[in-house]
Amino acid sequence: MIExxxxxxxxxxxxxIRIQSVKQLGVMAGCxxxxxxxxxxxxxxxxxxxAVFQSFWxxxxxxANFPPGPFHLPFIGNALNFDQAYPHRTFLKFKKIFGPVFTxxxxxxxxxxxxxxxxxxxxxxxxxxxxxxxxxxxxGIFTVHKPDGDGITLCQGERWSAQRRFALRTLRDxxxxxxxxxxxxxxxxxxxxxxxxxxxxxxxxxxxxKIDLSLHISFCVGxxxxxxxxxxxxxxxxxxxxxxxxxxxxxxxxxxxxxxQLVDAFPLTRFFVPYYRQYVREGFAIQTYFxxxxxxxxxxxxVETEPTNFIDAYLKDMHESNHKHMSLQSLAIDSGDxxxxxxxxxxxxxxxxxxxxxxxxxxxxxxxxxIDNYLxxxxxxxxxxxxxxxxxxxxxxxxxxxxxxxxGIPHQALExxxxxxxxxxxxxxxxxxxxxxxxxxxxxxxxxxxxxxxxLDEFGNYVPHKKLIPFGIxxxxxxxxxxxxxxVFLIFVALVQxxxxxxxxxxxxxxxxxxxxxxxxxxxxxxxxxxxxxLIMADNNQFEK
Length: 545
Fold this sequence. Notes:
By secondary structure, the chain is an alpha+beta fold. The chain has one domain (87-540): CATH 1.10.630.10. It contains 17 helices and 14 strands. Helix 8 (214-229) runs antiparallel to helix 13 (328-359) and helix 14 (361-374) packs antiparallel against helix 15 (389-402). The protein is globular, with a radius of gyration of 24 Å.
């Protein structure tokens, strides 16, 4: 649970800001859990009977209140219907049968909107009404089951508006979309390039190395988001970072799992789902990590000093505005949301990028040619993206085909609305299915083929596709989109400019996906080869390896 030994206080002269301690609640909950666990057979039977009754109630009485959808089983819903690693395939199949609006059960009913034009129309007409987040049991575990949630990602209403508005303003102040942030990215990118270069050895006249880039990319992207959120970064190999990254990975993997969806629908089953305890323990460990970080900032906070990171800026705003929705608990959750959102999806996209270059050497060759022709030995700048149309096309195709968030983050209807003749009641969970848009043949012909050329015209000019929406659509569109696009562009170009990537002994690494909230590749080791005598990177890189 969230725990702070003492009330958190600003230095002398400043008002006290407190965060609710739930240590006693945690002890009490632990005692209750132990009692229930000792009587698990009785509790299991009770939970099973109640869950089956609830499922049959939904099955027999509530079906008419939702758009049509596939047949679902009591208790487990449509869990057996889905390809967990490629859920977009199942969604596309359902779309062909039931149309662009249909209902699935996970096991609670979820209304799916699976068409770009309809998503655009719905968000234009009902954007505010669909800006909510589900308030189920699993969603509420880490927000102490507040009615409207907390933080940025799992929050709605006035509290969410306050957190999002502050986060957007602060990130813009820190240079999101500006050269000041580009310099910060280049600092951490330089660390990555130098570290990769240190592994290289000359063999048969080729400077090369065999390496798993996952952790290296994670430290690079993690360093950027750490600087923004905390004002510091971890040195490469720091066990604290490695442990924290593992917690994030496990939580995201479990979040979309059928077992936790079962717990969300029938909370009593949490006593019998083996993974549930680990999920809760690791989730609160993440919050504790940020609570401890916030405590450090509170101890050193000075109202006269201009903030250089998100946490300090939040503390300053709390001190000056005393806004009712700004609290240290919200700050801890905000920080975790920003860190996870800014870290995991970008790292995953870059890991996929290298993997696809290995599988498609002809694409890699075209990238080398374009970068060498236009940049030569000059590092890339975001303002020069227009000079690299094939690079832009390749990045767009990577964002489309990798479908990093295959399930998305569900919405909740805050009021009754009508969509394509179907009344969606307030409180209904609604899913914007971006994967079905990106893999719909009518939008992107041969959707399962990696083809950057689909984003180029007949003259080789880059042409953005209006139906490419990897960062979502509507009021809940990713607030860090410009940061993510900047990171992916600069890091991707620098990697391809300095190195080439190859399979080891001509054995291609797996391109199959692993199931989870984020679509991650299996771990792989590749061969990297240096392309130039000297590294090409921004001049402001003065740092340790």
